[in-house]
């Protein structure tokens, strides 16, 4: 049973008690009365049948909000009440429990019709067996009180049960929404992890392999093979660090600035371009995520210089501000038109998108200043 069903069941105990009393009291008077034996037996059997009828039809109809089962329950309840009402006048007391059941199980319109059907047998009996107006008046008064009582309290019980069911449905919806949010968060986390790994592979392995291919295809094989082997070793270290989910290899064993200087110097050795590395401001320790973002930005910036710039000189500067650190990678190469959308330099390709994503995750920003024939300056600023 669901929690909402359990709450509804708990709210029924008072109405169950009313039904039991309203059936038991007329039963006692019936057994003590002077009606013929077969009438007593028939009426007593009908009264006794109310118990299993409620257990197997009435209660499930209320708890599960089953209108079809509720209609069957009320119809059988009316059928069982007819012999009792035609046998004993004390059966009027049973209306208090039965009318309330109608309003609990059925919507108000149908409950009213069922109550009218329940009132017909006792009125018919008093008309058939007695012509005294006072007795008829007493029956009408009792029926009116019973109907009014059951309509008010039964309607109140119906509203309480409905609100409980709505609250249960709302809780279920919230639980489903929470499960959906958890699922989407897990999927988003997996997507972010895939993007992170793709960025790491692009910034490390892919760039390293590109350097090795370029070195092996260039003239002066002796010198280039030596650099290719050195690059391959560093690429292997990057791969091991990536597999082990460690920090990027340039940061594993070297201070931040030394790593940046070594990456710049290696680019110069591989390309033959004059490289210079400098710092501006007072150096200080940086958070690991800031160091990673700047190292990857430098690698991507130098990779673009190597692939597209045809530069003679590259200047790398790390500037320490009061609340931020800035990386500038400037070359005197070809430059390009920032409004050119054909991707001829590849700067707006996956590499820069990945760099922007990584830097923005660290709270920073990326800027590119360039023009055809005037070189390019990449600026990365990250708050510290």
Automatic annotation (TrEMBL):
Residues 330-349, 360-384 are annotated as: Disordered. The chain crosses the membrane at residues 12-32, 38-58, 70-86, 92-124, 136-157. Residues 196-384 form the Histidine kinase domain. It comes from the Bacteria. Its cofactor is [4Fe-4S] cluster. It is found in: Cytoplasm. It catalyses: ATP + protein L-histidine = ADP + protein N-phospho-L-histidine. It is an enzyme of class 2 (transferase). InterPro entries: HATPase_C_sf (IPR036890), HATPase_dom (IPR003594), His_kinase_dom (IPR005467), Sensor_HK_TwoCompSys (IPR050482), Sig_transdc_His_kin-like_C (IPR004358), Sig_transdc_His_kin_sub3_dim/P (IPR011712), Sig_transdc_His_kinase_ChrS (IPR017205). Its EC number is 2.7.13.3. Residues 167-194 form a coiled coil. One of its GO terms (cellular component) is cytoplasm. The keyword Endoplasmic reticulum does not apply. Keywords: 4Fe-4S, ATP-binding, Coiled coil, Cytoplasm, Iron, Iron-sulfur, Kinase, Membrane, Metal-binding, Nucleotide-binding, Phosphoprotein, Transferase, Transmembrane, Transmembrane helix, Two-component regulatory system. GO terms for molecular function: 4 iron, 4 sulfur cluster binding; ATP binding; metal ion binding; phosphorelay sensor kinase activity; protein dimerization activity. Member of the two-component regulatory system NreB/NreC involved in the control of dissimilatory nitrate/nitrite reduction in response to oxygen. NreB functions as a direct oxygen sensor histidine kinase which is autophosphorylated, in the absence of oxygen, probably at the conserved histidine residue, and transfers its phosphate group probably to a conserved aspartate residue of NreC. NreB/NreC activates the expression of the nitrate (narGHJI) and nitrite (nir) reductase operons, as well as the putative nitrate transporter gene narT. This is Oxygen sensor histidine kinase NreB. It comes from Nonomuraea montanisoli. The lineage of its organism: Bacteria, Bacillati, Actinomycetota, Actinomycetes, Streptosporangiales.
